[in-house]
Amino acid sequence: MAVTKMFGASVKRREDARMMTGRAHYTDDVRRNHTLHMGVVRSPHAHARITSVDTSAAASMPGVVAVFSGADLVDDIAPVPCAWLIPDSDLKVPEYRAIAVDKARFVGDAVAVVIAEDRYQAEDAADAVNVSYEPLDVVTNQEEAVKDGAPQLYDDVPNNLAFQWKLNGGDFDAAQNSAEVKISQRFVNQRLIPNAMEARGVLADFNPGSGSLEVWLTSQNPHIHRLLLSAVTGIPETDIRVDSTDVGGGFGSKIPLYGGEMVACAIAKKLGRPIKWMESRRENYVTTSHGRDHIDYVDLAATNDGVVTGLRVEAYANHGAYLSTAAPGVPTWLFGTMLSGPYKIPNISCTVNGVLTNTTTTDAYRGAGRPEATYLIERMMDLLAQELGMDPVEIRRKNFIQPDEFPYTVATTLQYDSGNYDGALDKALQMVGYEDLRKKQEQLRSEGRYLGIGFSTYVEVCGLAPSAAAGAMGFQGGLWESATVRVHPSGKATVFTGASPHGQGEETTFAQLISHETGIPFHDIEVVHSDTDRIPFGWGTYGSRSTAVGGSALVYAARNVVEKAKRFAAHMLESSPEDIEFNDGVFSVKGSPERSKTIQDVALAAHLAWDLPEGEKPGLEENYFFDPTNFTFPFGTHICVVEIDAETGAVDVQKYVAVDDLGNVINPMIVDGQVHGGIAQGLAQALYEYAAYDDGGQLLTGSMMDYCVPKFEHIPHMDVDRTVTTTPVNPMGLKGAGETGTIASTPAVVNAIIDALSPLGVKHIDMPLTSQRVWKVIEERKGS
Amino acid sequence: MKHEITVTVNGTKHTSEVDSRMLLVHYIRDVLNLTGTHVGCDTSQCGACTILLNGQAVKCCTMLAAQADGAEITTIEGLAQNGDLHPIQEGFWEEHGLQCGFCTPGMIMASYDLLKRIPNPDEQQIRHNLEGNLCRCTGYQNIVKSVQFASKKMSGAAGDD
User: Fold this and answer.
1) Chain A residue nearest residue B133, CA to CA
2) A389 C-beta neighbours (distance < 10 Å), count
3) Cβ contacts (< 8 Å) between A28 and chain B: which residues?
4) 3-state SS assignment for residue A177
């Protein structure tokens, strides 16, 4: 695709104007008259039988309109749905009630709700609901939960094993038997808490007169939520409007449908008044899905000269107390299929045990499965390099899939679209000054100082997804995307997308795309998203899919608009469509550029319809449904340079270089921002963040005081740049940018720290590599 | 218990009766309907609710409305004057200092306070002085640039006087 002024320009974001003046409308900012507020009574026990729920005291408190226990609403709402039913895995989906009925299974499980005139009264009354519990034994760790004799969360899920999923390519056992080098390592990929700055919430307004339900929702996928809300409440989807136009970050945590939202909708219908519920941050920590939480046993087989011949992974994924909406797909398809990384590994074997425990549910969190896979393979490559005494750069080059080998099918079934892994690596090495750094490292080591250089030469899968692939994976939906391009009589355009941006800036990039395609000025193009009453059906924003899939739908819709306009222009110019050229919004007769019509002229004529070309219909509007033929596979090299203070274990990130290959880029400024934010989240996993439970299932890191959401001084300056390898999968040749930073950065940081400590014989430290953990390892090593 | 308070918010005087326990942030959001000031946490960590109270940046989820009696308050809605963005807002726009935008009002108000105290901060000073405001989207790098942009623009404007 030719890059024009609009495609490839760092245009300032149009959504910023409302956001930086306080005029955005996040869910809690929406006001409806006579709104009631919901407070939720939550279990303080991680595992307990609910023996009674006494609502009488609460019901008589000031302002209280109603109190509901789980039993009170059983007939009004179906269980919380799980929508990723992975096949061939003996999957068991336990019943997940929006409000627990007989048993609470994690700290924070809803037990009752209180509806009151204001939020203060609702919270007061929630405290007055008297629940009797009979505490049960608790299990929070997935390896413990599958052992015989462990506390059982469900009668019908033996050993708490919700599924066992396997993926095999080649013959790992044969590779292992003939391996010259074998490396084994256990990794803990710790549980993380997404912490979108806006917590979750809902405002549900049911009109008893019309039977319609309007829902303002913190959602990444309003149409999926509308469909699921319809299914669980019985209100026809045609009577439900979900609006998620302004959403304060998601990072995967606003994909699932949660109980609180379902309950608010059901009660709004029951009471005929709007119900608002905004979770507090404390509630957010215990009830909004967490991410990661894997324990992985990894074996790698290789030759003495560093060629990897096989990889085996046995993973234990902690799903928490219930299976959240997309949960089963995350540690399986989104993880196992990416274990080959950018390398040619002919034999891969993966087993994933999906385990239920007395903890908050886990689901997609930025990267979702792919960071876990990338962490494993990138750590294993370093362990192999360490074992063989090879440079981590050389071991990677030796195993890379080569540019002329694409499309390349890896042992884990995916077909990578395109890539030039050495190209990104070379550029990153140059930016970081690799040779000089190694010399500096040697010098510092002789002085007893610990400098480390860490690599991550990642590849990831995004642009989710061909719908047939989604179906084969058990995802209960398609993953195509829709678009409508409507050119008004004035020549201005409104475009409607099924993607649902919540920080990614597509109100801007999509207008750039349409301007590029149609020549209509950027400022004359309005982008509408996330309001199910206005947009066509679409699957939302996650999996770095919005531009790769949603943008593609828009491009094709726009091209069809231009084609129709060309036929109109030919008619108006008394020429034939074949003789019309189209440039930058102007149709002209080949060889007679003075005979021309603008797309605005055509739009007016098409709407007036006084003189239609034969066989044409009035108007200038096209819909398009785009179902990609493949995923896209962004890749790149991230290099992290750290120095460790041996006295304290503190890690100083001195340099961070990222070279990403995302294919073509529509708005470099926005893409850089996505990469920055992604790196910050991945780096924070490596260094700071973890969700800690005590043995009784209490979340010890249950607020921003206890859980380290990184601050300004935690995140280093990042040098980001790109190489460009286009993809044939979509008409823009772009791959996606939302998750690369998070996927790439974690192993780069950990590899740097292990590299720094390698003179001490350190091979691995589990994340997060806090100063305390690092210091402890240094002390142990010095002592030994 | 109820208290009568009088506060001036973005130049407009309001007299209201508030409950003792009403937080200032809820007064601003739910009584005055100025919803640009956000609530991001319960523990005064995130700074999404930062406003200017008598010229100083304050996390207004940590204050009672009753404590604000007599105060002069500026919220994000009051920063742009006569339709012209404040240079800090311009900086956030120019340098892509926001993504989801939820932390942005608080971030801008905290930056206002910073630039009043330290008109030409270096990167270290910006990072240190804004550490009471959390952003989950940007990785902070472009917020640093946004504040630097504003600093330059504001010192330029001061020079023109």
Assistant:
1) A711
2) 7
3) 29, 35, 38-39
4) helix
Of A13, A198, A718, the CB nearest to B96: A13
Phi, psi for residue A681 in degrees, rounded to 5: -70, -40
Domain count, chain B: 2
Tell me the pLDDT tens digit for each residue of A342-394.
Answer: 999 999 999 999 999 999 999 999 999 999 999 999 999 999 999 999 999 99
Query: Inter-chain contact A197–B21, Cβ cutoff 8 Å?
Result: no
Among all residues of chain A, which has the CA nearest to that of B140?
Answer: A712
Q: Which of A491, A518, A721, A710 is nearest to A607 (CA)?
A: A491
Judging contacts by C-beta atoms under 8 Å, the chain B residues touching residue A15 are 101
Inter-chain CB proximity A21 and B80 less than 8 Å: yes
Q: Name the 3-class secondary structure at A669.
A: helix
Of B78, B101, B120, which residue is a domain's last? B78
- Please say whether the beta carbons of A692 and A768 come within 8 A: no
Torsion angles phi and psi, residue A721, rounded to 5? -150, 180
Residue ranges making up the domain that contains B47: 2-78
The verdict on residue B65 lying in a domain is: yes
Q: Do A676 and B89 touch (CB under 8 A)?
A: no
Q: Give the number of beta-carbon pairs within 8 Å between A and B.
A: 171
Query: Taking CB atoms and an 8 Å limit, are B135 and A197 in contact across chains?
Result: yes
Separation between Cα atoms, residue A399 and residue A301, nearest integer Å: 13
Q: Which domains does chain A have, with CATH numbers?
A: 29-136+198-249+254-287 (3.90.1170.50), 367-464+630-783 (3.30.365.10), 480-626 (3.30.365.10)
Tokens 């023996």 — which residue? A51
Domain boundary among the residues B78, B109, B128 is at B78
A26/B126 touch (CB, cutoff 8 Å), yes or no: no
- Left, alpha or beta for A605 (phi > 0: left; psi -120 to 50: alpha)? alpha
Using omega within 30 degrees of 0 as the cis cutoff, is the peptide bond preceding A407 cis?
A: yes
Q: What is the pLDDT of residues A427-486, one digit of tens each?
A: 999 999 999 999 999 999 999 999 999 999 999 999 998 999 999 999 999 999 999 999
- Predicted TM-score of the model (pTM): 0.97
Residues of B within 8 A of A248 (CB-CB) are: 38, 100-102
Helix, strand or coil for residue A444? helix
Minimum Cα–Cα distance from A29: chain B residue: B35
How many whole angstroms separate alpha carbon B30 and alpha carbon B14? 14
Alpha-carbon gap: B156 to the closest alpha carbon of chain A (Å): 22
DSSP symbol at B29: I
Residue A149, Cβ density class (10 Å: 0-12 exposed, 13-18 middle, ≥19 buried): exposed
State the smallest CA–CA distance between residue B140 and chain A in angstroms.
6
Give the nearest partner residue to B134 out of A21, A711, A741, using CB atoms.
A711
Q: Are residues B12 and B45 in the same domain?
A: yes
CATH of the domain at B42: 3.10.20.30
